[in-house]
Amino acid sequence: MESTSAGDSGIATPEWLESWGLTEESLRAVVTGLGIEIFGALCARAEPAPVRDRLCSLSTRGFTSTMYAELCRYMESCRAGRASPRTVVPGCANGTEELSGFVRMKMAHEDCFSLEEGGSNVDQKRIIGKFVCTSCVRSYTTKATLKMHMKQHRPVSIDNLRITRPLTTTSQLRSSGWNVKAELEAPPTYFKSAVWKHFGFPVVYENEVRKINKSRTVCKHCSISVSYPGGNTTNMISHLKRHHPQHPIVTATDKKYSSLKKDCNTATNTNASHATNTNASPATNTDASNTSTMPWPTDFGQFTLAEVFTSPLHSTSQRAEAITKAIGVFICSGMHPFSTIYEPGFRNLIQILEPRYTIPSAAHFSHKVIQELHLKTKQFVKMRLEEAICVAITADRWTLRATECYITILAHYIDQEWCLRDFALQTRPLHESHTAKNIADILADAVEKWQLERPHTLLPVVTDNNRNMDIAIQEVGLKPHIKCFAHTVNTATQKGMKVPQMSRLLGRIRQVVSFFCRSSNAAAMLKSKQDLLQLPKHKFSQDVLTHWNSQYNMVERYLEQQSAVAATLMSLEIRQKEKNLINISEDNISDAKEIMKVLKPMKTITTILCDEISPPIISLILPMKWHIMSAMEVHHGDTALVRAVKEAIAGDIDKQYCDKETLQFLLLTCALDPRFKSLPHQDDPSRSQVYAFLVRETAKLNESRSTRMKPAPRKVLSTSDLPPQSVKLSTDETKTIPAETDMVDEPPVKKAALEDLFGDVFVANFDTSQSLFERVDKEIKRYRAEPCIPLSKNPLSWWRSHEHSFPLLSKVARMYLGIPAKSLPTERAFSTAVDVITAKKAALAGENVDVPIFLEKNMEV
């Protein structure tokens, strides 16, 4: 080490000593400290104050033993030059040299030091011959006492010296000037918080065994112990913010608040910039923007009102959960794809309505929100179905653009308020062939899963006229099987439309309509002709081959606009551009008008079947069939085309609902409908048979219900059931007692208060001697005597007001009149499903189609 001379002694001055700039007083205090081991303890007691400050700074600069030896030699040379007493270096002269005027220290143990008398000073004599602990600076008279004292301390690393002292007094030792650094255990790697860069777990030794205390942590900057309860880092973060602000810790909450602060300040600065005068100087604008910035609590203390109302909503708050659920309901009720939440317009709407709300991801909606809505709705549907006395189901198949086939099952019943209810139970893809067995498996699974069967009642099924559906229902064992009347009407009318002459007429009209739909010039000229002829400005609609009513609408619209169409087709401009236009003759127009008259009843029936406000029930099937057969009767003045169409429609309708079981069931439903209970299309013997069958069904249903509600009979005891010693009867007494005797006396029937008070005066006229069959027959006779209600009235509303007048018959009416006349609700569910699997959701798996359809049909918004 390079050095410089030091006065007359010729001892070089250490270079590090000059760089530190210590005064001679500080150096004297260091040497008098009697060793580096107690240097820190003496720093706190050095006088004057500047010397103490310099010594404390020196203790933190890595003062080594080599540097201490150099310092001692330098100070010896300085004392020799001034003829001052010699300083005793610890360890020299075997540690036994006695000097006057000061006390010297020699190492007596690894963890202690001893003091020996070196002068006659009174204060110094008090500690002569004692041993001092380096941990707590306590003195003892013997080494044995000191060793016993040292065992009470726990080992803590102090630089390179291991001393014995408790961990809890680390701060006391540091306050005394010791440069104490406790032995720390690094936290596990999976602790991701930034606070662990400044803290560690303390290491303690018990009986030379190293143990880690994970209930507390120690700061690496000040060695202060901080509690660590249950993995919570709040205490450590608070310690750093309070005592070590130069080491900031940015938490997730701080990031959120700082981001919100930035947004608020940006918005405020923007508003201030708009409000600032454009002629103002840059300095003025800067001051204005700074003063208009919203204050933000840098220490996250108390917020202002503006900050409270702009702080972000937590995802688990009541407000945020309500908004999230409302978005889920919006997606389900409107069949929207999950990508809707990423659309700019939707996000802008949510931002304006609630700026504090953060929209979750699509995965959160699909995996949590929608699943919770599906579970709650499913429980609601099951609860409602359990209340139903009798349930009817409708099933139908449908195919999407992706050539995937599905089958949907709906349940229908009449609730306690006599309202017709329906629920979409399930939608299942048909991955295999559409055989009757595969369809039967799906139907059986739905019946078992939703527990649709009821004891002593039927489970009617309404489907289309497909043969596979008929066989599948027979395999499952469901009955009766009612074919959808809307399908029946559509099939019969399609056969009438396929008559050769009618098919040619439709082809001519279809070609003209297609020309006006594809030509913009022709459509524009048609509008001008409509203005001249004062015709309604209606557009043409093309027909769909699978829906006969679309063909009816196409012909009806053509006949309405026939004069405007003829004027447009005769114009020179159209003739020059289109060469292959077909002119429809007057005979064809006359035939079309006649066909419209014939198909008018079919159109009316189709409109009734498609009514959404008051859905048609099964009691309408036979009256509509009778009306169609009456309208399709061939008359003498009918043309060949009209006669052919009528015969085709009547021939197909007449074959439907002809089997005995189905016809009897439909007649029973007509008898229960107060609009058609007179059965005008039946003769008197047939009416009597229908009502006789109704009496038997009503008595059977009420008897089964009374049997289920009847309490269990009391047990009848015989003499054989009693112990032998309790039966001591004579031979004559035994002859008078039957084989089985009720040994338990029946308690007397307790009269009600009004019966006890007025029973002798007011006697009820209730005849208990009548059987159930007689009461049912009497009730049905009273029902037949009631006048029929108008056809515009709702039969379920009538039964709601007359339920107590006909208590036995109303149970049968509730069971039979809850069956729909069509399976079109199922088809409408699948037409809704076409909206589910759109271009945006083309990748939606077939198994996932069930949930959106189920929620859209059953969820109450």
* SS element count, helices: 35
Mean pLDDT: 74
Q: Label the structural class.
A: alpha+beta
Helix % is 40-55%
In short:
With 861 residues, the chain is α+β, with helices and mostly antiparallel strands. The relative contact order is 0.06.
Verbal overview:
By secondary structure, this protein is an alpha+beta fold. It contains 35 helices and 18 strands. Strands 9, 10, 11, 12 and 13 form a 5-stranded antiparallel sheet that branches. A 5-stranded mixed sheet has the order 16-15-14-17-18, sandwiched between helices. Helix 18 packs antiparallel against helix 26 and helix 21 crosses helix 24 (586-609). It is elongated, with a radius of gyration of 51 Å. The two termini are 88 Å apart. The relative contact order is 0.06. Mean pLDDT is 74; it is low at 1-9, 33-38, 82-129, 154-180, 267-300, 709-746 and 829-837.
Topology:
Blueprint: E1 3-4, E2 13-14, H1 15-20, H2 24-32, H3 39-43, H4 49-59, H5 65-81, E3 104-109, E4 112-116, H6 122-125, E5 131-133, E6 139-140, H7 143-150, E7 155-158, E8 161-164, H8 170-175, E9 184-185, E10 199-206, E11 209-212, E12 216-219, E13 225-227, H9 234-243, H10 252-275, H11 282-292, H12 305-310, H13 318-333, H14 344-353, H15 362-387, E14 392-399, E15 405-414, E16 420-429, H16 436-450, E17 461-463, H17 467-476, E18 481-483, H18 485-497, H19 500-518, H20 520-533, H21 548-560, H22 562-569, H23 572-577, H24 586-609, H25 621-631, H26 640-654, H27 660-672, H28 684-709, H29 731-736, H30 753-758, H31 772-785, H32 795-801, H33 807-816, H34 824-836, H35 850-858
Parallel strand pairs: 14-17, 17-18
Antiparallel strand pairs: 1-2, 3-4, 4-5, 5-6, 7-8, 9-10, 10-11, 10-12, 12-13, 14-15, 15-16
Helix pairs in contact: 2-4, 10-11, 13-15, 15-35, 16-17, 18-24, 18-26, 19-20, 19-21, 20-22, 21-24, 24-25, 24-26, 25-26, 27-28, 28-31, 28-33
